[in-house]
TrEMBL record:
Biased amino acid composition, Polar residues: 43-56
Ranges of residues in domain Arb2: 10-134
A GO biological-process term: regulatory ncRNA-mediated heterochromatin formation
Protein name: Arb2 domain-containing protein
Region (Disordered): 36-60
Alphabetized GO MF terms: siRNA binding
One GO cellular component, as annotated: nucleus
InterPro entries, per the entry: Arb2, Arb2_dom
Residues annotated as signal peptide: none
Species for this entry: Otus sunia (Oriental scops-owl)
Length: 201
């Protein structure tokens, strides 16, 4: 995880670990954990409180812009579900997705929505466990939803660490392409355009 923060810092980004199933602390369990070293008695009743600094998945990402996802395994399926449920919001905020050995199924999950399928094809890339060298194109008979490349290892458990640098290089290039395009199409105020506005008043 530390490596993720370093790589994100290189592109002036941050890292948010989304784990919506783990927003609460069981007071009894926490007290037992603490009492192991302090020899305090554990609580008898089970109570849960929100973790400090933790909030819902929606609150985590509601104000973020220029968001990229790295989705491993089942996380890919969850991301595509999010894309289907909140299509416009996700398409407006997310500039790229890196799947790693993803379990998503574009055809099935998107129900043939051409706009979503085109977005996935354009803004996503998948790294898969494979014997080919890192970043080499890999054909897939199972699904063709986005460009697929090798993770540089055949071992599923090692795939994320083996391709992490390649993923951040890809995300950096996608962010640069997005910001360059946005800059190209944003209106620029010039002296002549401002003087014309003044003359028209």
């Amino acid at each position: 995880m530390y490596c993720c923060w370093n790589l994100a810092a290189e592109i002036h980004g941050g890292v948010i670990v989304l784990n919506p199933n783990d927003n609460f602390v069981d007071l009894k369990t926490e007290k037992e954990r603490l009492s192991f070293s302090t020899r305090e008695e554990s609580l008898t009743s089970t109570q849960s409180i929100p973790k400090r600094g933790s909030s819902s998945p929606e609150e985590h990402t509601s104000t973020a812009m220029n968001v990229a996802f790295i989705a491993h395994g089942y996380g890919g399926l969850v991301f595509v579900d999010l894309l289907v449920q909140r299509k416009q919001e996700v398409m407006n905020k997310v500039y790229s997705v890196a799947f790693i050995d993803s379990m998503h199924n574009t055809q099935h999950q998107t129900r043939g929505d051409p706009q979503i399928q085109e977005w996935i094809q354009k803004y996503c890339r998948e790294w898969v466990s494979n014997s080919k060298p890192l970043d080499k194109a890999v054909g897939s008979l199972m699904k063709v939803s986005c460009p697929t490349v090798s993770a540089g290892t055949e071992k599923y458990g090692l795939a994320p660490s083996c391709c992490l640098h390649a993923i951040f290089k890809y995300l950096k290039s996608m962010l640069k392409a997005k910001t360059t395009t946005a800059f190209r199409y944003s209106p620029v105020a010039t002296r002549s355009s401002t003087s014309k506005k003044r003359g028209n008043k």
